[in-house]
Write a structure and sequence with these properties.
Layout lengths: L2 H58 L46 E4 L3 E3 L4 E11 L12 E11 L5 E3 L7 E5 L2 E3 L5 H6 L8 E3 L4 E10 L9 E4 L15 E4 L3
Parallel strand pairs: 1-11
Antiparallel strand pairs: 2-3, 3-4, 4-9, 5-8, 6-7, 6-10, 10-11
């Protein structure tokens, strides 16, 4: 072959070699550049993440400086003070129409109610008890004993006469019969009763006792009324007299 051929072949080989080397060189440069960029990228992200995390930690740090202070204590200054005491200054006044000796007609009361006299005497009949016999004693004129329980009081501050069983003035009424007292102390003692004691007493004195009667059979205690109408309580100054009737059926 001629020299030109050898030269041409040599140049071709040189050219191929240079191209190969150039590719390898460019590849190497690319790898270097890529690694550098990757390293920078990794370092930058780490720094950014660290910075962001620190800011987040600072921003999201829970600082509870608002302590709950309960200064709204419940103070009950509205205590109930009952200064409106009930004062009953309306004392009960007894008028003339309340006195049993100031009424022209008979005063009808229920058993247990009080009959007031203008002199300050008060009398109450509490009820009637019936007995076929009292101890060994039996009624002499009728069939059943009737024991009337009475209390009296001198409410004045002076001496007054109060009615008693022995002084009369007490009667009972049942059916169509009106009868006076029966005096039988043995019968009363047998049932531990005491006759109502009357007479003159000081102010504030109270007496309690019974009056004894006899009634026909066939009547209950609620069918017997007690009468107080006698001259013992006659009010001499005015001529007024007591006339009261106690009943279970007023």
């Amino acid at each position: 072959m001629s020299d030109m051929v050898y030269i041409t072949i040599f140049l071709s080989f040189v050219t191929l070699y240079m191209k190969r080397k150039r590719r390898e060189y460019m590849s190497l440069i690319g790898l270097i550049v890529t690694g550098s960029l990757a390293g920078c990228s990794d370092g930058g992200d780490g720094d950014m993440e660290a910075t962001d995390d620190e800011e987040e930690d600072v921003a999201t740090e829970e600082v509870d400086d608002t302590e709950e202070v309960d200064d709204t204590e419940e103070v009950d200054d509205t205590e109930e003070v009952d200064d409106t005491e009930e004062v009953d200054d309306t004392e009960e006044e007894t008028t003339d129409s309340d006195y049993v000796n100031k009424i022209d007609e008979q005063v009808v009361l229920e058993y247990g109610e009080i009959a007031r006299v203008s002199t300050g005497i008060e009398a109450t009949v509490h009820g009637v008890s019936l007995y076929d016999r009292m101890g060994d004693e039996t009624p002499e004129e009728r069939d059943v004993f009737a024991v009337v329980q009475i209390s009296t009081e001198n409410t004045s501050d002076e001496q007054r006469d109060i009615p008693g069983a022995a002084a009369g003035g007490w009667e009972i009424f049942y059916g169509d019969q009106q009868v006076g007292q029966t005096f039988n102390s043995a019968a009363l003692r047998a049932e531990e009763y005491e006759g109502l004691e009357g007479g003159t007493v000081q102010g504030g004195v109270t007496r309690e006792g019974v009056a004894l009667f006899e009634v026909d059979e066939g009547f209950s205690d609620t069918e017997i009324d007690t009468l107080w109408s006698d001259n013992f309580q006659f009010i001499e100054e005015s001529g007024e007299q007591i006339n009261v009737r106690w009943t279970a059926n007023p």
